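Question (not urgent): is this output format expected?
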Amino acid sequence: SISSQVVLALLLGVVVGLFFGGQIAPFQSVGKAFILLLQMTVLPYIVLSLMTGLGNLTYQQVKTLALRVGTLLVISWGLGFLVILLMPLAFPTWVSASFFSTSLIEKQEEINLLTLFIPANPFYSLSNNFVPAVVIFSVAVGVALIGIENKQSLLANLDTLNRAMGRITQFMAKLTPYGVFAVVASAAGTMSFEELARLQVFLVLYV
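Got this back:
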């Protein structure tokens, strides 16, 4: 199965990375290319799915859906905030100054919430991966399509394009073992044992 292949690729990546060390560094570019290819269809899939999904509904169905999704959203937000509050308790107290880096004291770029959530230019939001703005734009178009007559031809074309995005994603999923191998091998080959030791807290928490 694909999951077994991914696990095997992960283990092989660790072994190959530790054995060859820095010689495996070029695999880092292969891993990055794989991740970028995975991201290629994410936003188009979101846009097309929301437009076609909402466009095929009735207003009554939208009201029912909004109530149910709103309830689930509030519950998921509550669980998310609870995890955020409990997360620091899972980490030990770290007293070594070597843990800190200059990136922790660098001035962070301010986030423009209006640009993040309001798609004044949908193409700008798409090119900069502003997911909330893309979702709001897609939902607005999908809801607007509900009350439009003779929309089936447009929705059929969008659905066809959406299925094409799905086929691309399925093809990329088949490459997952190779991508995982490249990412893990480059990481294991370029990291020192001290850096690997620092990751143990993250690994234990992740498991």
